Amino acid sequence: MASERMPRRGLLISAGVLVAVLASVSRLDLVTAFAEGSDSLGELLGFLRRFAAPDTSPAFLAKVGQGAIETLAISLIGTLLAVIGGVLLALPASGRLGRPGQAAARFCLNLLRSVPELVWATLTVLAAGLGPFAGTLALALHTTGVLGRLYAEALENAPAAPEAALRGAGSGAVAAFLYGTLPAVSPQWVAYGLYRWEMNIRMAAILGFVGAGGLGAQLYYALSLFQEAQAATLIVAMLGLSLVVDAISGWLRRHLVVA
Amino acid sequence: MNAVVRDPAARGRATALVLGLCVLWPLLQIAEFNPAVLFAPGNLATLGGFLATFLPPATDADFLGLLAAATLDTLAIATVGIALALLIAVPLALLATRSLSIGRLDGRLRPLSEALRLCARGLTLVLRGVPELVWALVFVRIFGLGPAAGVAALAITYGGMLAKVYAEILESTDLTPARALLAAGSGRLGALGYGLLPVASDELMSYTVYRWECAVRASVVMGFVGAGGLGQLMDQSMKMLNGGEACSILITFLLLVMAADALSAWLRRQVR
Amino acid sequence: MISLAALGVAYADGRRALDGVDLSIAPGERVALIGPSGAGKTTLLRVIGASLRPTAGHVRVDGVDPWALSGRALQSLRARIGKMHQAPPIPPRQRVVTAVLAGRLGQWPLWRAMASLVYPLDIAGARAALEPLGLTERLFDRCDQLSGGQLQRIALARLLYQQPKLVLADEPVSALDPALARSVAVALNDDARRRGVTLIASLHAVDLALSEFARVIGLRDGRVAFDRPAAQVGQAEVDALYAGAPVGDAAEAAEPAPRTRLTRCA
To answer: Where is the ABC transmembrane type-1 domain (chain A) (predicted)?
Structure first.
C-alpha cells in the first residue's frame, strides 16, 4: 500500500539510528576512554591472565560454598515470598474485588515491577540492615510486581464456567474459587514462579554488590581488592549455581506443571 | 469391595511437604529471615527519615542539569552498547547457525566447520552466562569509573544474547530458499543475503529493538557499580541519604523506561 | 415446589427471552422442557435456579422468592438446587474425587472445603456417587484423562453427591451419543424417583423426553406452547412446536460445537 514511501521511511530511520550511535559515541568520549584502556593493554592482559587461574584452596572454596548456599537461600525465599505476594495482589488486580481494588492493586504491581531489584536493595538495606535478609526482601519486592501481573493475567484468562457453576450451587466465594478456578491457574502460577526463580538466582548473586549478602558480596570484595583469582572462582561458582537451579527448576516443572 | 479407600496421592504429598519443610527451614535461617528486624526502632527511623525526605523531589537547576546529563549518558550507553553488541553478535550468529551449513545439505558434515560452529556456540554461552553487572564490575577495574565500562559490559553480554537469538531465528525461519541457493552452489553469504534475510529480517530487527529497550534498564542498573549514567547518580544520592534527589532520579528513571518502551514499540511497528 | 406467574425476562436490547410464563410444578414431578433453539429453555432454567432475576412477574422456588432473600439465605437456597450443564464445568486438572466432592461446597463450612483439598474428606461418599455410573475405578484419576461422556457422568455424580431437593438439567445429554444420552437421562430420573425430588430437564431429543419423563412442557418464542403428561403429547403437537423454527436444523447442527470444548480438557 505504502510501497513507494516505505524505502524512504526505512532510510530515514536507518539514518536516525546511525546519527544516534555516532552522537552517543562522541557524547561518552568513548574513543579516549577505550584508548586509555588499550594503553594499559599489558595491564589488561595480566588482569585477564590472573583470572585464568581460579583460587581453589580448600579454605576459600568452603567460603564460596557458604556464599553459594546463602545466595540459593536468598533466591528461593525471595521467590517464595513473591509468589505469596503475587497471589495476594493478583486477586484484586484481576478485578475480583471491584474496580477501586483493581486500580489500587495494579498501581502497586506496576510500582513494584518498575523499580529494579538493585534499587529496592538499596532501600531494604536501610530497612533491614546489611545482610541476606535485605537481598531477600529486595528480590521479593520486584518479583512480586512481575509475578502479580502474570498471575492476574492467568486469572483473567481462566475459564469462568467452573467457578460460576459452583457459585450457582450455593458455594461460598472462597470455596468456589479454590475448587473452580485454582486448579486451572495453579500450574501456570507454579511455572511462572519457577521461571522467575531461575532469573532470581542470577540476580541474588549480584545483589551482594550493594551489601545484600551472598556470592555477590564476596565478588565485590574480591574485585575491589584486585584478587582476580578469587573473583574467577566466584564467577565460576555463580555460573555453576545458576545451572544447578535451572536443573532443579526443570525437574520440578516436569513433575508439577506438565504431568 | 467396601474396604476403606485411601487417597493414593496422600503419601506422596506428605513426603513432599516434609521434604519441603526440611529444605526450607535451614534456608530461612541462612537468609536470616526475620521480619521483626523491619520494625526495629533504629531501622524504622533510618528508613522513615530517608523516605520522608523523598518529598518534595529535588528540582534545583544545578541538580536538574546533572540529571539531564546522566539521562543522556544512560541512553548513549545503551545505544552504543547495542551497536557494539551487533558487531559481536552478527559474525558469531553466522558462525553458530546451522541454517547456512553446507555439510547438512549433502549429508557430509565437514569436521572443521562443525568444530567452528561448536566454538561459536560455546563463546556465546560464556558471554551471556556472566551477568552484565559482573562484567561491568570487572570493566570498571580496567577502564575506571565511567560509561566506558558500562558500554563494554553491555556489548559483551548483549553480544552473546543477540548471537544466540539471531542463530535461533535464522534456524526457525523457512529454510527452503537458502537451501535451494546453497544446493545451486551459492556461497554462504549469498545464501544469507538472498535466501535467509528476506524472510527473517523483520524478526531480527524487532528483537534488536526490544533488546535496546532492555539495555536502557540494564545501563541504569550498571550505574550502581560505577558504570556511569543515571544509576551512578542514584547510587550517590542513596548513599548520601539524599531523598529528594533519589526521588527525582527514580521518577526520571520510570519516565525513561516508559519512553523507551514507547519508542521501541513504535520502531517495531515500523519494521513490521 | 415451583410457581411462576406472568414471568418475563427481557434483555437490555429489548429482546424478550421469556414472556408471560405461568407454571406450577409440584414436589417430586419429573418435567422435560422441549422446544426449538432460542425458545427460552435455558433462560427458564436459570430463573428457576435462582441464577437470573426475572424482569417481570413472580417466581417462587421451594416456597420462597429467591430475590427477596438475604445473600446467605439465597446461597443456602442455591445449595438445595442441583444443576447440570451441557458442558460439564469441571476444571480439567482436578481429580475426579475432588470434582465430585465439590457438589457439597454449598453445605460445607469453609474450613472443611479447604481441608478436603489437602486430603479428600469423604472418599466413601464420592465413591458411592460414582458407583451407579460405573466409574468407581476412576476415583483418583484426573478429569483430563476422561472422555467427554465420562466427564458428563462425573458431573452427574457431583449432582448425586450434592443430594439437592430440586434438579435442573440444561441439555445434559445433547453432547453425548444416543446410548450414553439415554443412560444419563435414566440415571437422572432414577435418582429423582428414588429420593422423591423434583427434576426439570431441557432436552433436544424429543423421544427421550416422551419416554423417560412424566410431564412435558413445550416452549416456543419464550411462551408455553403446551404443558401436559408425556402420554398425551401427540406427534402433531411436537411437529407444530418445531415447525418452521427458523434455525431448528441449523441449531441442531451447530449444537455439537460444545463437544470439542467438552473433550479438549486442556
So the answer is: 68-249
